[in-house]
Structure prediction request, 367 residues.
Amino acid sequence: MEETPKVLRKIIHIDMDAFYASVEQRDNPDLRGKPIAVGGSPQGRGGVVATASYEARKFGVRSAMPSKRAIQLCPAIIFVKPRFEAYKEVSRQVRAIFERYTDIIEPLSLDEAYLDVTIDKQGIGSAIDIATAIKGAIRNELGLTASAGISINKFIAKIASDMHKPDGITFIGPSRIERFVSDLPVEKFHGVGKVTAEKMKNLGLHTGGDIKKLSEQELRKHFGKAGSFYYKIVRGIDNRPVEPEQETKSIGAEDTFPYDLTKLEEMELALEKITETVCRRLDKHNLKGKTITVKIKYSDFKIITRSKSFSDCLNDHNSILAAARELLEKTEPEGAKIRLLGITISNFPSLLSKGNGKCAPGQLNLF
Prediction:
């Protein structure tokens, strides 16, 4: 069985609180203290919520919720048009704060990242103290709040960051991990959507402790390759390192959803968020690519990919999103149960021809 590393890592997962909505409330005093939704439609005619403020969440409004439903739950809700360039700029500022403490940073999106502070730049030593300092800097310098989860691995740190939102900080030490995971409801496992959670419950698996009673072979029988991950994680084993972004032959991002997406508008919103991450990574490496690939995983774990190549290079948000939507729509996704979407850009002339290709380098350096 895979062992826990002898040198325990110190991992922090930072998650900005209601990021888009909080930026809007910070920049527009008239929105402060009010229920707002970034994205969506005030007439309830299509569109879904990208992010809801905590005032709106009290009424049950959530991300990826159709506008019509958000209005039913909270008639006073205010819809705000997204400002992605503003969010990217704040994300850059947050990244600069992280870099004061470590260079081992793995961004997951504009508003969350893993940090490995096993050895930190300032020699602070305590991951709790570092997370506290980061949260304080984000509050004092940017006027925003973030929640932090701290542990010895990525899985536990990510779950911990969600435990005391907003503006929370949660530490799960080595001695607490197995008990913590044993008591954890299966729907709280990162990457377990509604369909998988329901399948687990039908098998009598309601908590991590229940999963621990099954052998790895039994788990693989029911859940495929994911079964091996579940087997390890309920024992507190997650040796995935925090991986700073590096130049590769392809750059992409994907997202596993907390519940299966069945409506095209939900899928398109998800693609928009994934495109942000892809663009940020392309810009960071000064790359443009000619081939885009969309990955789709269904509730039954079937995976398909669809690709398209272009004569000109892509690295801008609108072009990539339009191409991704086109590829998705060709699969006739309406009504399908989709649990994961991903976008990858490849075929970089700047790599293939050592910088002499037709693609000009990107201009932005985003977190």
